Amino acid sequence: MIGKVNWIIENWYFILTALVMVGMAGAVVFNFFSRSSKEQVNAIKKWLLFAVMEAERQMGGGTGQLKLRNVYDMFVGKFPAAAMVISFDTFSSWVDEALKQMREMLEENQNIQKYVGMH
Question: Are 31 and 24 in contact (CB under 8 A)?
Answer without folding.
Answer: no
